Amino acid sequence: MLKDAEKRTVTEDGRLMLEKAEKDRIETVWDRYAAQTPQCGYCEMGLSCRICNMGPCRIDPFGEGPRQGVCGADADIIVARNLGRMVAAGAAAHSDHGRDLVEVLAAVAEGKAPGYGIADPDKLKRVAAEYGIETEGKPPHAVAGALADAMMGDFGSRRKELSMVRRAPAKRRELWRKTGIMPRGIDRETSEMMHRTHMGVDNGWQSLLLHALRNALSDGWGGSMIATEVSDILFGTPKPSANTVNVGVLKADQVNIIVHGHNPVVSEMLLQACQSPDIIDLAKAKGAAGINLAGLCCTGNELLMRHGIPMAGNHLMTELVIATGAVDMMLVDYQCIMPSLGKTASCYHTLMISTSDKARFPGMTHREFHPENARDLARDLVKEAVENFGRRGRVYIPVEPVPSLGGFSVEAILGALGGTPDPLLDAVKDGRIRGAAGVVGCNNPKIKHDYGHITLTRQLIENDILVLDTGCAAIANAKAGFKVAEAAEYAGPGLKAVCSALGIPPVLHMGSCVDNVRILLLASALADSLGCDISDLPVAGSAPEWYSEKAVSIGAYFVASGVYTVLGPMPPITGSMNVVKLLTEGLNDVVGAGFAVEPDPEKAGILIRRHIESKRKQLGLDA
Ligand code: SF4
Ligand code: MSK
User: Fold this and answer.
1) Ligand 1, residues 199, 202, 576: which to mutate, most atoms within 8 A of Cβ?
2) Measured in angstroms, how far is the CA atom of residue 264 from the centroid of ligand 2?
């Protein structure tokens, strides 16, 4: 038995697959992490800078060596610039994903995207109306074209506020204006962050950090929100549906196809192809019982939310899923796809396909998807996966899948509550539900796989705090069994009573990483009902195992939107106590919320409970 397997993951499928990988001599992310430790202390503290070619420079945190880079930048400037660039990269990733969806919407409008359509015409109308587009008597395709154009305008550098910030509570918008962090164009804020952090531009660590908030808001209330809304328009607004999770969703007797990444544009077409009767017949003719499409990470979450497609695992499981030997084809789009996957797959029969013009990977065959060719290419690829079924060696699928419920869009949650947030608010007011917390984000080999998510979530629901989750956290919680109606048993008495009455789990799967905006929108709906700001609500956010720059942007837009947010792993900021103090304390006076960092999820739970109880007190709920 691999001696470290139990130290690396809390999941049974993860542990068993780590042992299999060891037997197969497969190197994993944990092995590479071990090989990298101890990691560079300067970089961990954010004190190294390689922004320009007079560097690279580093600041001695003990004050014995250099205290300034060659240009004269001190620790505060260097740390703030590095963090600002992390936000910019994260916001760019989410927002570019959003733009890709707008391009598909435009192609649908022009009739140049065979296979794609408008799955939610009501939402198309609602969102178009928000953009001031006349919808009466217009065919959906015309509305879609006008909406795509208007949304493209949000990416540019018009001198006005982003369109969808109107969804935020009025008090919050006023605060953003007053503090000068109201987001304008989505790309503009990212571009400005790159400009400000060039040598010799913004050397105010405070102004850099404030712009980081504005940049993050352009993601949360811009790029990511567009990604979520357009995905709903094109592929359907999620409704609660059953699914299954963990490596056991792979089927020994079926053709297994995995989609991994973030963008539903490719995976939705794959799903259509996998459901084609002629291709299913082909699979049967090749000796398979059928075709099994499953997901990894957020592209999997997109399919799970809308179609109940099974989920094989989260970020740290991606190599281990291949090590089952049961994956006939894996298709990747972009983000969070380890460049190691092609090498892992080379030890098995798995065909690895990259699909995006902007994301190439070693050891993968590149087959590029565009709206015009997606339907046909998806069919070709599924047929190739079927052909590959016969080349399998031995397979190892060591566990049974766990049942789960997904699909909790804001619309679905409000629907379950009878169309208004009032029943939820009543439960919060009378204390049956103490508050709500978002548990979101990635896995990171610095934290035992899934331990942070599961431990924190369990503590929160036991204490009557409703958990809303997304991304890899949502997959962890599903694997832990928190997402069936019976999981109400794990909840405290108040939350249990509410969940049992509504037939919902105490942990609601709200989608992928871009779908964190669904949490923002639910919080806004609650704040509007109470006539208060988001920062007044008994709510909190957390990212117990985050690794990605996108998570930094998400954390920053949560905080800038008024949500107290607890991070698990420490970001690279400890080289500047000024920056640490501003992010953890000072921001409370600026945006009414701040960050905390607590790698121990038990302690993080206590911080969140304390925060929620103090907000309840301020609202006079327990008077
Ligand atoms: Fe060094 Fe300044 Fe250049 Fe950074 S920007 S590498 S601190 S000279
Ligand atoms: S996939 S950003 S590891 S949540 Fe969205 Fe998971 Fe984090 Fe990627």
Assistant:
1) 199
2) 14
Which position has the token pair 């959906």? 140
Number of domains in the chain: 4
CATH number at residue 427: 3.40.50.2030
- CA 201 / ligand 1 centre spacing (Å): 12
- Atom number, ligand 2, closest to the C-alpha of residue 473: 4
Interface predicted TM-score (ipTM): 0.97
pLDDT band at 231 (very low <50, low <70, confident <90, very high): very high
Is the model's pLDDT at 454 over the cut of 90?
Answer: yes
Is 252 a domain residue? Answer: yes
CB-based contact 600:608 (threshold 8 Å): no
In 3-state terms, what secondary structure has residue 511?
Answer: strand
261 lines ligand 2 (CB under 6 A): no
Atom number in ligand 1 closest to CA 72: 2
Does the beta carbon of 458 sit less than 6 angstroms from any atom of ligand 2?
no
Looking at all shown ligands, the one closest to residue 200's CA atom is: 1
**Domain match, 358 and 465 both:** no
* CB-based pocket (< 6 A), ligand 1: 49-52, 54-57, 69-71, 73, 78, 199
Question: Ligand 2 atom closest to Cα of 513?
Answer: 5
Identify the domain boundary among 209, 235, 261.
235
Residue with token string 């408008």: 118
Residues β-bridged to residue 468: 438, 508
Could you tell me if 218 and 126 lie in one domain? Answer: yes
Cβ(326) – ligand 2 distance below 6 Å: no
> Which residue in 554, 513, 537, 541 sits closest to 604, CA to CA?
541
Q: Ligand 1, atom 3: nearest CA belongs to which residue?
A: 52
Please name which of 192, 224, 265, 190 lies closest in space to residue 94, comparing C-alpha atoms: 224
SS3 436: strand
pLDDT in tens, 539-565: 999 999 999 999 999 999 999 999 999
Calculate mean pLDDT across residues 469-495. 98
What is the distance between the alpha carbons of residues 469 and 453, in angstroms, rounded to a whole number? 10
Q: What is the pLDDT of residues 341-351, one digit of tens each?
A: 999 999 999 99
CA angle 312, 317, 321 (to 5 degrees): 60
DSSP conformation class of 487 = G
- Rounded CA separation 90/336 (Å): 12
* pLDDT band (50, 70, 90) for residue 418: confident
Give the domain range for residue 471: 405-618
Cα–Cα dist 467/438, whole Å: 6
Q: Which ligand is nearest to the CA of 511?
A: 2
